Amino acid sequence: MPFETTTNLTIIFFLITLAILLANKLHFSSIPLLILLGILFGPCGPHNAWFDLRLVQNCELVSFLSHLGVLLLLFYLGLEFSASRVVQNGPTILKGGTVYVGLNFLRGLILGWVFFHSLPETLIVAGITTISSSAMVTKLLMELKRTANPETELVLGFMVYEDAFMAVYLSLLYTYFLTGGTSFTSGLLSGLVTLLFILAVLFSGPRFSPYLERWLHIRSGESFIAIGFTLLLFTVLVAEKLHVAEAVGALLLGLILAETSHAKRLVQMIAPMRDLFGAVFFFAFGMGIDYREFWAVAGITAVAVLATVFGNLFTGWFSAWICGYRGRPALNVASIMIPRGELAILVAGIAASAQLTAAFQPFAALYVLALALVSPPLAKKSGRIHNIVTNIWSNLHPAK
Amino acid sequence: MGLIKEAELPGLGKKYLLELEGGERIGVVVYDEGLRDLFYFAAGENEPAYTVTLTDQEARQIASILGGVFYQPKMLEKLEMAIADLRIEWLKVAPQAPAVGKSIGELNLRKNHGINVIAIIEDAGRGKKKCTAINPGPSFVFLPGQMVVAAGRAGDIEAFEEMITGGGVQNGAV
User: Which of A64, A329, A365, B75 has the most CB atoms lying inside 10 A of its own CB?
Assistant: First the structure.
């Protein structure tokens, strides 16, 4: 019934607005709050004889909007990606970034293998735990007034690197799970094909970007956004017909358009849409979770959170050390990059659509929530941690 | 002049660092969303001692105050800004200066002297200043007491200064 759909949607958007307003008020990231409200008021929310919090349901329209949110998130990731920017950052950041992402990814793989002893699950766990949330990190940087600090350039450089890595890894995951999917070899094969395709796009991009450049040279903002959005839907459709995961299509279109001079304008226009429908995605993700499943995953989440916090403190400090930062700035780098967010949830979403263990959604939700709670105080107290560590160090080596 | 260091902050905006004469540094971060953050680093420190957040509007207001648009320091009645060869000067028209009573067109400032008059500012009483003309046309006539904002090459500006302030007591009692 159309009326019920509208009511449902209105309540959902009301809750989304509430979560975002609350997040801004509490100086907290909106993503974990959106998931939390989705869990509380979704179809699996708490209810008994006296009260019933189950206000909203997951209907076709909501899942479509959240699907759109995923496509826009990936399109945006592609648009922001720029190989030249990764290289431009200079060889030191390239070296540090490789070490940083490599070590974190390795930790994710080890965790995944320890938890599940099987390859697909390991790949998902690695995807969830490797990459920090750029949205949450930039927010923290602004809040702690560290944007002008010298080490912040390094943090942001690492994040550009992380996003680039994740763009490639995500498209591999999508291909592996949603197209080849069933066996190891076919998944690996389609993954390789996707990788080749991405490389081909990146290398041939400069050749046909002049055509796109001229074609997209449109002054009117109205026509520009209409064409951009249609292009996105069209690419998704073509990708589906070619048996490439549609999300990969959105990402690749972003990669191609990122090479043109219109990228900045598109980013400005897509960002509000991404925020809105991305919020629907996070909320819908929460709606799919039954909070009673939290107990089952509490153990592995606790291990993963501890491994991420201490692992990240080490990998962040070590890669900052490689880039020539010592002492407190290095610890600032390490402590601020702990939060996980949008990309972790995206990966958990892949696991859900690939029908892997149902444990991933509550795991990812709990994991993101716990890190969002732990990381701001850690980042704030980096100076104190530094003092404690140097004290212990000097007590252990009094002669030096 | 202090050296300004510029750095891109991907996803955030741009950062500018200016080292002051005392070794302290002032950092300005311009966010893509429009906000500005101002930072003060004590000499040799990497953590800011003070920070201020400004909206776009506030930042512009502060910028114009710092730039001397509202009030110029008495010491520097003749303010100069040097960017490569370009000079922008604020000059007060002296009572007996050669240019008094003549129009911009008559003096043929742009063609013969390479001077562009950007604005004329007059005292509006009670110490307040008021911008009488922005980008005045050729028929504009110079009168004593006006403040002329002019742009040109260093040599041309010096010649123009002679026309505006020469031939009388400089900045004489009005």
Answer: A365
Q: Which of residues 78-97 of A touch B (CB under 8 A)?
A: 80, 85
Residues of B at the A interface, defined by Cβ within 8 angstroms = 7, 9-12, 15, 17, 27-29, 31, 37, 39, 41, 46-48, 51
pLDDT tens track for A148-205: 888 888 898 888 888 888 888 888 888 787 765 556 677 677 777 777 877 777 777 6
Residue A215 CA to residue A202 CA, distance in Å, equals 19
The minimal CB distance from A152 to the residues B9, B28, B31 is found for: B9
Q: Which of A147, A157, A159 sits opposite B15 (nearest CB)?
A: A147
Could you tell me which residue, B126 or A230, shows the higher pLDDT?
Answer: A230
B49 to chain A: closest CA residue: A145
In words, the CATH class of domain A2-386 is: mainly alpha
DSSP string of A321-372, one letter each residue: HHTT--HHHHHHHHHHT----HHHHHHHHHHHHTT--TTHHHHHHHHHHHHH
Q: How far apart are CA A224 and CA A218, in angstroms?
A: 6
Q: Running DSSP on this structure, what letter comes out for residue B93?
A: P
State the Cα–Cα distance between residues A270 and B43, nearest whole angstrom: 42
Residues B79 and B161 in one domain: yes
Domain that holds residue B126: 74-165
Split into its structural domains, chain B has a count of: 2
Q: Which amino acid is at A90?
A: G
Distance from the first to the final alpha carbon of chain A: 77
Question: Per residue in A253-266, is it b (16+ CB within 10 Å) or e — as a string?
Answer: bbbbbbbbebbebb
Strands B147-153 and B80-83: unpaired
| Domain edges within chain A | 2-386
Amino acid A153 reads: E
- Spatial CB neighbours of B133, under 8 Å, sequence gap ≥ 6: B119, B120, B140
Residues B90 and B142 in one domain: yes
Tell me the three state secondary structure of residue B102: coil
- Residue B170 inside a domain? The answer is no
Would you give per-residue pLDDT tens digits along chain B (174 residues)?
Answer: 678 888 888 878 889 999 888 888 999 999 988 899 999 998 888 888 889 999 999 998 898 888 777 776 665 555 555 455 677 788 888 888 888 888 888 888 888 888 888 888 887 666 566 767 788 888 888 888 888 888 888 788 888 888 888 764 444 333
Q: In Å, what is the CA distance from A311 to each residue of A117, A131, A308, A323, A330?
A: 21, 13, 5, 18, 14
Q: What whole-number distance in Å separates Cα of residue A374 and Cα of residue A310?
A: 12
Closest alpha carbon to A280 in A6, A70, A43, A46: A70
Kindly state the percentage of chain A with pLDDT values over 90.
Answer: 27
For B26-58, give one letter per residue: b (16+ CB within 10 A) or e. bbbbbbeeebbbbbbbeeeebebeebeebeeee
Closest CA to B170 of B100, B94, B99, B101: B94
CB contact under 8 A, A156 and B9: yes
Q: Which residues contact A248 (CB under 8 A, 6 or more apart)?
A: A171, A174, A175, A194, A239
